[in-house]
Amino acid sequence: MAFTSVLAWIPWPSSPSSIILAILIAAPIIIHLRDPLSSIPGPFWARWSPLWMIARSQSGNMHREMIHAHEQYGNLVRTGPNEVSTADGEAVLAIYGDLSLPIHCIGRRKFDLFPERDAKVHSSQRRLVNAIYSMSGVEELEPYLDDVLRVFLDRMGEVDRERVDMSYWAQLFAFGYSRFSKRFGFIETGDDKGTFAQIESALQSAAWIGQVPWLYWVHDWLAPWIGNRLGITNRHGLLRQIAADKVEQRRSKDGGGHRDILEKLMEVQRRNPERFDGTAVLSNIFAGSDTTALSIGAILYYLCKYPECKARLVDEILAESKAGSIGRANVPWEVAGKMTYLQACIHEGLRLHPAAGMSMPRVVPPEGITVKGTYLPGGTVIGANPWVVHRHKQIFGDDADVFRPDRWLEDDATVKG
To answer: What angle do CA 334, 297, 144 make, to 5 degrees?
Structure first.
């Protein structure tokens, strides 16, 4: 009776306009009170829609934006209505170390490991190509890499003392090695034939479309009337066509004695035609080429920016050269893997400039998880941006933004990561 008496005294709105106004005021309050993520700080608009993530993904500056967000809001940041980002090292290990946590994505292409959500299917698919990407498998490709490296160094000799864009040449190099026993000719001509612009457009488009994946399918449905309006639909463009031609040429010659990645992938296809089709071969041929180029370019950039590190690395290389361990264009992995300062420079370059600028989100299991005292219910999307984690001062110290290869040569107590 008391409750109904209180209700009777409330001045409930009677006109349609006042009812609508009351709903508009009450709805956000009710949503906030019932929201299990309401206690997690983050940008205001990120609480209500994916627009915050879409805008930053489309800008191509997501990595910097996420660093700023974590500096402002802390280790756990709300980045969407049902998504959070973490910078905590222990949480990163829990999220990405637990293979049972499904990848957050919508849709799937046949044999594409990147978006595969089912852990069992993912493991089954990986087993098909594990041998190709194992260390022993990669070492078999050294002769092809040495050949491309010789051509690359010859071209660098031709442009000696000229001002060149080394990030561009790193891309030419990355796309020229190990996939095929015959090169594309990119290094020889110094021209990518517009391929890199296509890839850049596809990646930038994929970054923001990934936040609203349903838009991709709508665009696909409308394409006959509106044409292609999304860069992601081009994907690898010319490179993909070149690869398809190479596959057909190799198939007609039944291998021809080559032992490059293409031939190894085609062997997998011949043994597993139902599980590994032509699309799978093409997807694997260029997997990682762009990230390899970014990593090479980043390492070269930091060595140029920090001349004292470059000088020390040159000394190590010259010492190995005088010992006869390496040649002008022949640096065996067996030797390179033991060059401690070289490896430290590589690790530091990869730390400061990760090839991926966005997180690889996972879905919290039904029972939920607790991250540093904050409970996340099942179904919550959580991820960690590598740029945030790799520059986190709680992990790498106060000089986390500095290129300092020696941190990888120090003891484990000093290098917390």
So the answer is: 45
The span from the CA of 255 to the CA of 138, in Å, is 19
At residue 414, the pLDDT reads 47
Q: Per this entry, what is the length of the chain?
A: 417
DSSP letter string over 388-413? HHHT-HHHH-TTTTS--GGGGTS-TT
The Cα 178–Cα 140 span in angstroms is 10
What DSSP string runs through 222-269?
HHHHH----GGGTTTHHHHHHHHHHHHHHHHHTTTT--SHHHHHHHHH
Q: Buried b / exposed e across 338-347, counting CB within 10 Å, b at 16+?
A: ebebbebbbb
User: What is the reported pLDDT for 185?
Assistant: 76
Q: What residue ranges do the domains of the chain occupy?
A: 2-104+361-384, 125-290
Helices (H), 89-213: 89-97, 119-133, 135-139, 142-158, 166-174, 186-189, 195-209
* Residue reference for tokens 């940041």: 77
261-282: buried (b, 16+ CB within 10 Å) or exposed (e) per residue?
bbebbbebbeeeeeebeeebbb
At 226, list the tokens: 């509106």
d(CA 413, CA 417): 9
- Closest to 92 in 3D by CA, of 385, 393, 394, 325: 385
Exposed/middle/buried for residue 25 (C-beta within 10 Å: 0-12, 13-18, 19+) = exposed
Q: Walk along the chain (417 residues) in steps of 10 and give the mean pLDDT of each run.
A: 52 64 62 74 91 89 94 95 92 77 54 60 79 82 82 86 86 71 74 80 81 82 80 64 69 64 82 79 71 91 97 96 82 90 97 92 89 90 94 93 95 51
Q: Do the beta carbons of residue 403 and residue 305 sit within 8 Å?
A: yes
CB neighbours (10 Å) of residue 8?
A: 8
Q: How far apart are CA 263 and CA 252, in angstroms?
A: 12
By C-alpha distance, which of 37, 53, 19, 17 is closest to 210? 53
User: The pTM is what?
Assistant: 0.82
Q: What is the dihedral of CA 239, 243, 249, 253, to 10 degrees?
A: 150
Asked whether the beta carbons of 294 and 282 are under 8 A apart, the reply is no
At 222 the pLDDT is 82
Residue 416's pLDDT is 47
